[in-house]
Design goal:
The complex is a heterodimer of chains A (about 375) and B (about 850). Chain A has 17 helices and 13 strands. Chain A has about 375 residues and is of the alpha+beta class. Chain A has four domains: about 45 residues, no CATH class; about 120 residues, PTS-regulatory domain, PRD (Orthogonal Bundle), CATH 1.10.1790; about 80 residues, Gyrase A, domain 2 (2-Layer Sandwich), CATH 3.30.1360; about 45 residues, DNA polymerase, domain 1 (Orthogonal Bundle). A four-stranded antiparallel beta sheet of chain A has the order 10-11-3-12. In chain A, β7 and β8 form a beta hairpin. In chain A, α13 runs antiparallel to α14. By secondary structure, chain B is an alpha+beta fold. In chain B, about 40% of the residues lie in helices and about 15% in strands. Chain B has 27 helices and 29 strands. In chain B, the strands form nine sheets. Chain B has a six-stranded mixed beta sheet with strand order 11-17-16-19-10-18. In chain B, a hairpin with a 5-residue loop joins β28 and β29. The chains are: A alpha+beta (about 375), B alpha+beta (about 850). Chains A and B meet through α2, α3, α4, β1 and α5 of A and β1, α4, α10, α23 and α26 of B. β13 of chain A pairs antiparallel with β1 of chain B, so a sheet runs across the interface.
């Protein structure tokens, strides 16, 4: 039996062999298996793409056409109390443009056992969240006489994150170099070093330490523990994948960000490509539409072809086309024509629009085959 | 036959015209701004000189001797009195001036570095294409801006600035174009390469124009107005300005006018030449007509959607096409299109006369253009086209012989392409067979509406008749309706029964229990199914028997129905529907599992026929049985109404409780949310739950026997939510994902108190459409209605642009013979299409159904 599988493994994709194995009933004869494999091969050969098929245009149509049916409503609450997510057409545009900053950056943080079974999930989430001082403090008192600031901490919140007031004061001391910081019970007293500072300076200092970063992963503004299947994971608003992957309770093999550029920079183009595919697919699925992954893959592959992520814009992949006329027919024709003229660029007319322009057969599909005949004059 | 070999263009090379070439291609030198003399005859040496081509009938071109429409036009030139800078090269001139030595003209780089950069550039182009080279050149040049000493002759460099649009300043002193030209002349060919100029096609000094090429007259034809007055083209106007100022400049120079006057004129000339090339330069006021409307000069002609490239070159217009309103006709086949006789007599198909079809074709010529089916033209082998009219008819009939072409009227069965805009996917243009019908609209089967996204509320569609044998066969093989059954987007059927026919089939297979054989055959004949051999010979037939009669005899199928209920489960054995109901899950478009199985077994052509038959059968059932939905269908029993009221009242109480907790600030917040946000989310959840529960009650109590419910259950039209909104409760109106909170300060409408956050005050509609809405409820409904209208209006252009970009970026990505996916220059994008090489339109939902194959083989 195994030889049979091996024999056919070269004839069609491995996943089909696996599928055959899975679906075989317990009792089968070798002849039947052979017949099954042969039929699968036959079906596979029938389903293969033809040479010359304009797969690119089909992919463009398959993503462009459902675009007209998508919502423009940017925000959507995915679930009961989850955070804002950009969905629908704006998100698709954002991904395909390969924007540098996206509207709602998010991470899905997977955890290593035992945390992924729900252990300390809330406190981990709180630890990840970027916390500023005002979120921990219940009051900022300005002492005019001493020109100092007394920060009254909310001990309950502090406990949640697992910090003591000592830790907090250390962080403040590091950030506010021009002042001395000391603990007074649970409160923290911040005093300016130089003696005769005006009230104005004290006030400024208060504003400064108010928004001071205390703990957590920078950039993560919201956290939400979610149960997915058997596993707990943390969804965050705001991304900082680099720092996140360094945390020891985070599973670095599965944690992802929805920012394509970030994924590309940190984990390479292949990661960026996967992110493009997953993100586009997620949006389309979320809208209740049906588009085959192959089309999205092709778009993602085109975007990542050069080794870095390029958007589908006039500065991105369209600018890399070899044909002057193809570029000119998209946007900013004058610029392209002038640039081409200066270096004497030659258009070899091997893509679609140029041939449409000069009324010649297009070299895709049935135009791919060329017939040579002798011309008798 | 004759002239079947054409010249083929292999490549197009871009370049810049040198002054020498300008002179060489020119047919005339333009010296006077005058256009015509007193008799209205073009002046020699004027802008309309007949050496530049002719636009008047009767005249002959002095250069090529051809008449109007035959002469392609010829370029001319003007000798500019002073050099002028070409506006599109301004940035390049600045770069060159800044980065080259003002004394020796060398680039401000040592020889070693020049050689190094050249090598690097070539390597970069090899690897990353021409765009990367351009970027690198840009970065090299910008690094040179601050070099103040020439490495070749050690001369000190000055700071050069550009005063837009076309003035260059060196240390606050103007550099005249003459000076610029001499500097550019000094650049040697080797350095040009680092400047990004290919010295083989262009020299830097050509940027500063001494001669101006004049486009041929044929490119800027004048139009004669009704009053007999001539109205010149925008370009001619602009050229007239240039020539006039140039002339004056010459005169002033020769007369030795003061420098200041000459400079003024020179600047004016610069302005005119600049606006001649581009009339939308940021710092210049655009040149205008006397009416104040800006002139359309060369750049504007090329640019944008209405420009030459996108409008005329990438987009073509065609003959042999028609457009009219569409209307439905279920009696024609899916791959047919009903063409009005009027159109069939205008559109023609060329047929070549041979000795075997001469008699057949002569009949068309005999009938002439006015009688159907006739012919409109005959074309002689030498290409001369002759119109068939009453006078010429007899003579032409004599003349026709093998080798001639007859353009005959459309006949039934001719190949046509049918299209509806927007053509978003390939199913928007399919090949149909012509069916000439009376009336004035195109007729299509309602089943093909879905791929075209058409309806009959006044939609218009286009018809094209392919004119060559190659085009016809390609259309038939690749584009015919049956070849497009499976969408390449998701690998499922895009065509299927719709609306009436789904409902009809549902009634036929679920309700009709007793029919006489006569009635059954009546139904089938009414649906134009004449093969009644498979109607069983029984006294009393059921609707299932009738449906079985259109199934193929050896067809086996099993599939679940839309309801998912056990008794509705479809089982077909040996072409007989043994159990189950036929509804949208089996016959509808998008799903249509039964259709998919038939296609797999019997092929696309058969499926198309089957689909047509079942469509007509379904409609016929409704016709015979009658079907009407009434308003009373939405009436609920008192019991149900009480329950609905209870649910809504209860949710109001809960909402009040929620608000009370919120007012006391005791709400347990969601992480990262404020009290108010949490309250909103909880409230939305609460109200949506209430709506859903009323919906459940409606579906529970609704009379399944009513027409409205039948439509819902069969999947013909509408869903339970629609019904619930009509019968029970419209529900919460959401604006931007939250409850309505816009309007006045702290309240939505003036009839509410401030800070009223109860359901009613924030867009919850407790009434149903049937019970009628209160004024404020109607108002909230209109708000969301307007919002969704805006959404559609704003979405269309956005998604259109996305689509255009995608199509432009991916249009030349194709599968090569070796199975790899490549773009035009041969760069590999995927080694195997979609990682397994499967064409989605040939798959089943994007996959190969291994399970089915296993079951089939095991079952044998």
């Amino acid at each position: 039996m195994e030889e049979l599988f091996k024999e056919f493994a070269s004839k069609f994709p491995a996943y089909l062999v696996e599928e055959v194995k899975e679906n075989l009933p317990p009792k089968v004869t070798k002849a039947q298996v052979k017949k099954i494999l042969e039929t699968v091969e036959e079906n596979y050969i029938y389903a293969k793409v033809d040479a010359g098929e304009s797969v690119g245009l089909v992919a463009a149509e398959s993503i462009g056409e459902p675009g007209t049916q998508m919502t423009l409503n940017t925000f959507h609450f995915a679930g009961v109390a989850e955070m804002n997510v950009t969905v629908g057409l704006p998100r698709i545009i954002e991904i395909l443009d390969a924007r540098l900053t996206i509207k709602t950056p998010m991470m899905e943080v997977y955890l290593v056992p035992p945390y992924n079974k729900g252990k300390d999930i809330r406190s981990i989430a709180m630890k990840i969240k970027e916390t500023k001082l005002f979120e921990l403090a219940s009051e900022f008192q300005i002492d005019i006489v001493e020109s100092q600031i007394r920060v009254v901490l909310n001990m309950k919140k502090l406990e949640e994150i697992g910090l003591t007031s000592k830790d907090v004061s250390k962080v403040i001391a590091k950030g506010a170099k021009t002042s001395s910081v000391k603990n007074d019970g649970d409160d923290i007293i911040v005093k300016l070093n130089s003696k005769d500072e005006g009230l104005n300076e004290v006030y400024k200092l208060k504003e400064k330490i108010r928004v001071m970063y205390i703990s957590g992963v920078k950039g993560v503004s919201q956290v939400l523990p979610v149960k997915r299947g058997e596993e707990f994971l943390i969804v965050t608003a705001g991304t900082n994948l680099k720092e996140m992957l360094n945390l020891d309770y985070v599973d670095p093999t599965r944690t992802t960000s929805n920012d394509i550029r970030e994924m590309g920079k940190l984990l390479g183009v292949e990661a960026a490509r996967s992110t493009v595919i997953n993100e586009v697919f997620k949006v389309i699925e979320n809208q209740g539409l049906n588009v085959d992954v192959r089309h999205i893959m092709l778009v993602a592959d085109t975007m990542c072809n050069g080794g870095s992520v390029k958007g589908i814009t006039r500065y991105g992949i369209v600018s890399e086309k070899s044909s002057v006329l193809a570029r000119a027919s998209f946007e900013t024709p004058i610029k392209h024509i002038i640039n081409a003229a200066v270096i004497g660029e030659e258009d070899l007319l091997n893509s679609v629009v140029e041939n449409v322009m000069i009324n010649q057969p297009v070299p895709t599909g049935t135009g791919l085959a060329k017939l040579k005949t002798k011309v008798i004059d | 036959m004759q002239d079947s070999v054409f010249k083929q263009i292999k490549s197009i090379q871009f370049g810049v015209l040198s002054p020498k070439e300008i002179k060489k291609v020119a047919a005339a030198k333009v010296v006077t701004p005058e256009l015509y003399d007193k008799e209205g005859y073009p002046v020699d040496g004027g802008l309309m000189d007949i050496r530049l081509g002719v636009i008047d009938p009767g005249l002959r071109c002095k250069t090529c001797g051809y008449k109007l429409k035959e002469c392609p036009g010829h370029f001319g030139y003007i000798e500019l009195a002073r050099p002028i800078i070409h506006i599109h090269f301004v940035a390049m001139v600045l770069n060159i001036l800044r980065c080259s030595c003002r004394e020796c003209g060398r680039i401000l780089l040592s020889q070693d570095k020049i050689d190094l950069y050249k090598e690097q550039l070539d390597a970069l182009e090899e690897e990353n294409g021409i765009e990367a080279r351009r970027d690198y050149i840009k970065s090299i040049l910008s690094s040179l801006k601050t070099t103040m000493k020439c490495p070749h002759c050690t001369a000190r460099q000055q700071k050069i600035a550009l005063e837009k649009p076309t003035t260059y300043m060196e240390n606050e002193k103007r550099i005249s174009p003459i000076e610029i030209r001499t500097r550019l002349e000094k650049i040697n060919d080797d350095d040009c390469i680092v400047f990004g100029i290919n010295p083989k096609v262009m020299r830097p000094e050509w940027i500063v124009l001494t001669l101006l090429s004049i486009p041929p007259v044929t490119m800027r034809p004048s139009i004669t107005l009704e009053s007999g007055e001539r109205s010149e083209d925008d370009l001619t106007h602009k050229l007239g300005d240039i020539v006039r100022i140039n002339q004056r400049l010459f005169e002033n120079i020769n007369a030795g006018a003061p420098e200041i006057i000459i400079e003024d004129l020179w600047d004016l000339l610069q302005y005119h030449v600049t606006t001649f090339f581009d009339n939308a330069v940021a710092q210049l006021p655009p040149a205008r007509h006397r009416s104040g409307q800006p002139l359309k000069t060369i750049s504007e002609r090329i640019k944008s959607k209405e420009g030459r490239i996108r409008h005329n070159l990438a987009g073509k217009r065609t003959n042999f096409s028609a457009r009219t309103v569409i209307s439905p006709d279920p009696m024609i086949e899916l791959n047919e299109v009903g063409v009005p006789k009027e159109i069939a007599m205008k559109l023609t198909v060329p047929e070549r006369v041979t000795e075997w079809n001469m008699e057949y074709l002569k009949k068309f010529v005999e009938k002439g253009a006015k009688e159907y089916p006739g012919a409109n033209y005959i074309i002689r082998p030498d290409g001369k086209k002759k119109k068939i009219t009453e006078e010429t008819q007899e003579q032409l009939l004599e003349e026709v012989q093998p080798g001639y072409l007859v353009e005959r009227h459309l006949l039934d069965g001719d190949v046509a392409l049918f299209n509806r805009q927007p053509s978003l996917h390939r199913m928007s243009m399919m090949c149909h067979k012509v069916r000439v019908l009376p009336g004035r609209t195109f007729r299509i089967s309602p089943a093909v509406c879905h791929p075209y996204n058409a309806d009959f509320d006044g939609d218009e569609m286009n018809l094209h008749i392919p004119q060559t044998e190659e085009a016809r066969s390609e259309a038939e093989i690749l584009m015919q309706v049956q070849t497009q059954l499976i969408s390449p987007r998701y690998g499922l059927s895009v065509m299927g029964c719709m609306q009436d026919s789904i409902g009809g089939l549902y009634i036929l297979t679920k309700e009709i229990e007793s029919l006489t054989k006569g009635e059954a055959i009546d139904l089938l004949y009414g649906a134009e199914i004449t093969d009644t051999s498979r109607v069983p010979d029984k006294k009393v037939l059921t609707g299932k028997d009738v449906f079985s009669a259109i199934l193929p005899a050896d067809f086996n199928y099993e599939g679940s129905a839309k309801s998912g209920a056990e008794e509705d489960h479809v089982i077909i054995k040996n072409g007989i529907l043994e159990q189950g109901v036929i509804d949208s899950a089996n016959m509808g478009s998008g799903k249509g599992f039964l259709l998919r199985n038939i296609r797999k077994k019997y092929g696309a052509d058969y499926t198309l026929g089957f689909l047509g038959n079942s469509l007509r059968l379904g409609i016929q059932v409704l016709l015979k049985k009658g079907f009407s939905a009434k308003s009373a269908d939405e009436d609920m029993p008192k019991e149900a109404n009480d329950q609905i009221k209870k649910i809504i009242d209860e949710s109001y109480v809960k909402a009040d409780e929620l608000i009370a907790v919120f007012r006391e600030n005791k709400l347990e917040t969601f992480p990262g949310k404020t009290q108010a946000e949490t309250m909103e989310l909880k409230m939305l959840e609460l109200l949506n739950k209430a709506r859903n529960e009323t919906g459940k009650i409606v579906s529970q109590y609704a009379n399944k026997k009513t027409a409205t419910m039948k439509m819902v259950l069969s999947g013909a039209r509408g869903n339970l939510i629609n019904l619930a909104q009509m019968a029970a409760c419209v529900g919460q109106q959401a604006l931007r994902g939250s409850r309505i909170n816009k309007g006045y300060k702290d309240r939505t409408l003036s009839c509410f108190d401030k800070d009223d956050i109860r359901p009613d005050a924030r867009g919850f509609i407790a009434n149903s459409f049937k019970s009628g809405m209160k004024p404020h409820e109607l108002f909230f409904m209109s708000m969301t209605g307007r919002d969704s209208l805006m959404d559609t209006a704003l979405r269309t252009p956005k998604s259109g642009y996305l689509y255009r970009r995608l199509a432009n970026a991916l249009q030349d990505v194709k599968v090569e013979y070796d199975g790899t996916v490549r773009e035009a220059s041969g760069k590999i994008i995927q080694f195997e299409y979609g990682e397994d090489g499967i064409d989605v339109s040939r798959s089943e939902g994007g996959r190969i159904d291994v399970k089915r194959i296993v079951n089939k083989v095991i079952g044998e």
